[in-house]
Amino acid sequence: MNNKLLPYTNVIIKLLQGIIYLDDKEWNELKKYTDEIKKHFNSLGLALYFDEIEGFSFLKQMEFSEDETPPLKLISKRQLTFSVTMICVVLREQLMQFDSSSSETGKLILSKEEIVNLVNSFYKEDTSNEAKKLDKINSDINKLIEYGFLKWFNESKNLLEVKRIIRAIIDADKLNEIKEKLLEYAKRNV
Q: Which is more confident, 30 or 84?
């Protein structure tokens, strides 16, 4: 039995699992075999989103017209909760400010406390549920780590890196629109 694997098998598997970042060991193989990998996933109805400058790559379901029969969906969309979306918006704004004030395209590092303080502005002034609110924000931060939008930079010092994929999730054009909707929702419900 001849089990010859493709030279980019690990890249395919990693992309099916989630995001590949510049500092992942599969990154160089992804760069080397980008065309072959795109063809492979296109044949499955998936598009490879590859941002070499920002240093990340992931898969997206291809869009099909109404007269085409799309294949079964292989990539599931995650519906983000209000509070997770709120943190994403705050992080996206911080990334924009960081990029505009920094001449380098380095890493945006925030403490967990900084993120909590930034997110608190969306909540009504209510000190009776402060512990519950803090637990919720911490839970949402952990969810964003799981999704690959945040990564521990130094866990013992509670420092997190904001991953640049957030730019692909919330682009600059939609940022204000989403923020306005979140603020309106927060005024009524949070």
A: 30
